[in-house]
Amino acid sequence: MSKIMQSKHFKYIVLVLLFLGWCLGNLDRFVINYAIVGITQDLGLSASAQGVILSSFFLGYAIMQIPGGALADRFGYRKVILVSLFSWSVFTILTGSAWSLFSLIFVRFLFGIGEGSFFPSGSKAIATNFPVNQRSGAMSIMLASGAIMGVVTPIVTGHALVSIGWRNLFYIIGAVGIFITALMFFLLKEPAVKSKLADGTSGQQPKMSLKAVLKTPMIWNLFISYFSIYAVNWGLQSWMPTYMVNVRGLDMTQMGVLAAIPALVSIFTMLLSGYVLDRIPAGKDRIIASVFGVLVAVFLYLMSHSGTITTFITYMTIVTVMAGFISTLIISKSLKTMPESVVATANGFINTGAQLAGFLTPMLIGFLVQASGGSYATAFIMLICFALICSITLMFSRRVNSDQDTTPEVQATAV
Fold this sequence. Notes:
The chain is built from 16 helices and no strands. It starts with a helix and ends with a helix. It has helices at about 1-5, 10-45, 45-75, 75-95, 100-115, 120-130, 135-165, 165-185, 210-215, 215-245, 250-275, 285-305, 310-335, 345-370, 375-395, 410. It is mostly helical. Pfam families: MFS_1 (PF07690).
């Protein structure tokens, strides 16, 4: 195995394993959005209770982001990834055993705790194994797993929920997770000594404390931006299946096929965004993402007023593509600017913003829909506001002349 680690291709082995693990993570998270229809019927739940269930995962997930990143920075990414993957697989199995609203909320919260360490530790693995000018591309591949699962989940889940039921579906997915954990145990390794830095020099980068990370203006800028765009992303992911069935009158099979279209398109655009972002001069990427934020708001408005399901899916696809570009920019920015010694902690904090949005948005939409008697108009208005907040935050951030030309000390304070 040491010879494999010394190979110039070892970083791609790491990336494939991260991609596989995050495919499972996204599948585990997405499947509840489709299974919740049957769960709600079986347990007799209201729209507000449905929102709480969808949000409970994100509370646990958000809580674990910073501790998970700190653990990866201290003990290495391999140990943290293995524990995270195994624990969330166990809680996926337990989801299928839930018998009441409280038990389901509790298990989904623990599921979020278990999965919460994977993303920051995966970011650490990318920063450790890839040079600066390849990190957006590597991160886009890892993030593309979400788009791929966005295609696979509705198609597979729509059929499986009818044929085997939601409980058996969670049992099977959890068992697959345990198998992937074993695969990671044997194949995922971590260098004992850091390789050369991105500029070709060797040695350790300067250490930064969590307090110093939190004093970095860029980190707070990315935190707010990621919170806002993720509110849009997860607002659509969590409630569009229910909306398409209850408001647009589709059955589960039709919904599954149509919901896969935006995700299918976004697979290619997500990979393209990483390639482009590694080649766009610093500052211009921020401007492009800010414009995209405004366009996301515009097309969300058009979605809410679309007369046919065809135009609705078209607008949703455009929103998904532009939001994906913004997300890739935000989450890969700290990989290029922060010292490697705290990159997991930094990305864990930024991702906390996203997961807080994931916690709040489904629950807020549930309350808004119930309060308005089943109308989704106010929910769309809320998502439009979040898109505009993201755009404004990116536009008014201070500009960096070059991510790659700054030293770690300057990177820690630049935006």
